[in-house]
Amino acid sequence: MPANKRMSYSIALLLSAVLAPIAGCGGGIDPASANAVAGCEAATSDQLAAGATMLPGRACLNCHKAGGQAAEHAFTVAGTVFSSATGNCNSGGVAGATVEILKADGSVQLTLTTNAVGNFYSHDPVMLPLRARVKMGTKVQEMSNQQSSGNCAQCHAKPGLSGASGRIYL
Ligand code: HEC
Ligand code: HEC
């Protein structure tokens, strides 16, 4: 091969060696190794970027906890509201829904609003066990049983786990 081709070939090799570790694991964010996939399809590269709209539907607290991939940003509750209990994760999130975290007695202890992809999260202290209610307009869904985790997608996954029928939906 001509010298100039060989040169650009080795630059390409060098570049891919430098970039592959970053691209390959989304800058260290890896839902599979955190066991956070919750039955979701593969995440897009945008969704692997850290921030409020990341990884809708995945089990946020598997990373956002002490010892997790986002240990500096531990959450007390987090999850995603979808338009269907059994749909995919990368689209179908419901923006602007109200999420009420209830105490065991049913009184409201924390009120959150879902963002553009349907995600909600908080660092504020939450009393366990908790219950929850999601609502928007005339639609309301309420969790009547008490649960001892704010990691909503731990149960609200596809398929649903621990008795949940699927994702949180309105
Ligand atoms: C596979 C691991 C993983 C999962 C799952 C995950 N995150 Fe993150 N998240 C991270 C990492 C890593 C950071 C960057 C933390 C840092 O900068 O120290 C981050 C940062 C953030 C931030 C910015 C920091 C902050 O606390 O304001 C927000 C907001 C956030 N994530 C929300 C979520 C939400 C909501 C979910 C679930 C729908 C979620 N994340 C799921 C790993 C994850
Ligand atoms: C340990 C498992 C578990 C966790 C964690 C959990 N849920 Fe649930 N959720 C359930 C089960 C089981 C049901 C069905 C029975 C009931 O209503 O209590 C349910 C029902 C619901 C419902 C009623 C609609 C439906 O799908 O049946 C909503 C809304 C809900 N949960 C929201 C939440 C929110 C918000 C969180 C996180 C703050 C959360 N859940 C965390 C297990 C869980």
Helix and strand topology:
Elements: H1 3-24, E1 77-82, E2 98-103, E3 108-113, E4 119-122, E5 130-136, E6 139-147, E7 168-169
Bound molecules: heme C (2 copies).
One heme C is lined by residues 29-31, 34, 36, 50-52, 54-56, 58, 60, 62-64, 69-70, 72-73, 78, 80, 119, 121.
Q: Can you give me a brief rundown of this structure?
A:
The protein is α+β, with helices and mostly antiparallel strands and 170 residues long. 13% of the residues lie in helices and 24% in strands.
How would you describe what is shown here?
- By secondary structure, the chain is α+β, with helices and mostly antiparallel strands.
- It folds into two domains: 1-29; 31-169, no CATH class.
- Helix content is 13%, strand content 24%.
- The chain is built from one helix and seven strands.
- The strands form two sheets. The chain has a four-stranded antiparallel sheet, with no helix packed on it.
- The longest helix is centred in the N-terminal third of the chain and has 22 residues, at 3-24.
- It binds heme C (2 copies).
Features:
170 residues, alpha+beta, 2 domains, four-stranded antiparallel β-sheet, three-stranded mixed β-sheet, 7 strands, binds heme C
What binds here, in terms of ligands, is: heme C
Average of pLDDT: 89
What's the helix count? Answer: 1
Low-confidence sequence ranges: 11-26
Helix content: 10-25%
Could you give the count of β-strands?
A: 7
Overall structural domain count: 2
Morphology call: globular
Neighbour order of strands in the largest sheet:
3-2-5-6
Helix-strand makeup class: alpha+beta
The helix/strand series, from N terminus to C terminus, equals HEEEEEEE
Question: How would a crystallographer describe the biggest sheet?
Answer: 4 strands, antiparallel
Q: Tell me what portion of residues adopts beta-strand conformation.
A: 15-25%
